[in-house]
Amino acid sequence: MSGLPSLPRWRGYDEMSGRLPRARESLSARAPGNVMLDASRLEKWLTSLPAYDKSRPYRQLKPALAALDAELLSELGERGALSVALAMLLSLIETHESRWSRESLDPQLQPEFVDSFHRILDAVERGGASSMRMNHDMYAKDLAICLHRLIPAGGQLIDPGGGVPRSVLVRPPVTALVRKSWYLVATCGGFAPFAELHTHQRMRQFFTADGWEYCFRRLPAVFRSYPDLKGVFGSSWFFDPDLDRVSPSLSFVRAVSERWGGLIMREGQHPETTADALEMGGPRRDLYAQGKYHPTNYVMVAAKARILDRADQLDKR
Amino acid sequence: MTKPVEDVFAEALGIDRSRVSDALTYNSIKEWDSVAHMALIAALEDAYSIMIETDDVIDMSSVSKAKQLLSKYGVA
Question: Does A249 contact B26 at a Cβ distance shorter than 8 Å?
């Protein structure tokens, strides 16, 4: 597809193989003396994780990762557990090409994975950080990328194992029920399976209008890889139309989604939504304190047909 | 040679180097909002080959605070 926005420091076409020995060397040098990172032990840890179910979200990894982290922590200590976590990612990156040839993923997506692998190799060479421990959400995301299950695409990660929660239909306003039902049933063809969008803090430099546009432009390749998908959805406070008023610099999230045919539906207000929305936003915090802003979660759903139509139009330009 | 923190701030926020001082704070100028903050963190990580912890991302509320936090990562 032509006209992909260029993303800052994107390295999808940069050579990776030359970096691998250096990353392994750096990892071995940093690992505590009691940690043996040989291939057979890594294989044992990797195979101790349950088989990945492609029809479910990446979150399925979290319970097993938390259990393995606890086991490694008591056996090897914090530094040891981190070394094993990084070694598992490195080991998967080392086998990426041989595994890729057995996958049915669209070739256009391969550079997206390579870009993320460069980022993860940077982390391995630096020795990681506590957020690279297995019990952290960011680690589960990186592991799912290395397993080729979460697809990096500019400003978001795309998880092909999702489904739109039916509860969004009955949220107020009730007057929108018919429009929402029509869109989901007639335009999309049902509630599942849908690709789900996730934000990854380690790809924060892509959380821009260009990064979101890039994400949508990669969806046709995702649909070719997973033909049963009916569309894409995301759930967050940053789809809230009220951001035009309280945080205009984030309005692009909704604007880009709507340009690609997305329907935005109010989901509700929750303590975790409030915490997320206020975490980074000074002005949002002030308005919230004054009672002038109430963080609200919205669900965005975009039908595959609408996305493919727009992609075709852009290709013809 | 290590790049001065001020230069990384100026480039990441797209502002003149002269506007970057220890007193510059998050959200005090339109160029340093929450979206730019994410790009700034990525630029600092790239410039100094570090990985900034999530708590520190949130805590980095000024240039002065950034310097303090960066020293924790071994960046002078």
Answer: no
Closest listed residue to residue A300, CA positions, set A231, A256, A235: A235
Contacts of B69 (CB under 8 A, 6+ apart): B52, B56, B59, B60
- CB distance from A247 to chain B under 8 Å? yes
CB contact under 8 A, A122 and B39: no
Kindly report the nearest CA distance between residue B13 and chain A, in angstroms.
12
- What are A148-199's pLDDT values in tens digits? 999 999 999 999 998 888 777 777 676 678 888 888 888 899 888 999 999 9
Read off the amino acid at residue A27.
L
A125: Cβ contacts below 8 Å, ≥ 6 apart? A19, A22, A23, A26, A27, B49
Asked if the model's pLDDT at residue A240 lies above 80, the reply is: yes
CB A30 within 8 A of CB A127: yes
User: Residue A41's closest CA among A87, A74, A86?
Assistant: A87
Of A44-48, A215-219, B50-54, where does mean pLDDT reach its minimum? Answer: B50-54
The answer to whether the Cβ–Cβ distance between A283 and B27 falls below 8 Å is yes
Question: Which residues of B are less than 8 Å from A281 in CB distance?
Answer: 34
List of chain A residues whose C-beta atoms are within 8 Å of the C-beta of residue B74: none
| Residue A247 to residue B33, Cβ atoms within 8 A | yes
- What's the confidence (pLDDT) of residue A105? 97
Closest to A124 measured CA to CA, from A112, A142, A144 = A142
Q: Using CA coordinates, name the residue in chain A closest to B43.
A: A205
Q: Are strands A231-236 and A194-198 parallel, antiparallel or unpaired?
A: parallel
The separation between CA A203 and the C-alpha centre of its own chain, rounded to angstroms, equals 9
Residues of A with Cβ-Cβ distance to B38 under 8 angstroms: 204-205, 207
Q: Are A83 and A31 in contact (CB under 8 A)?
A: yes
ipTM of the complex: 0.74
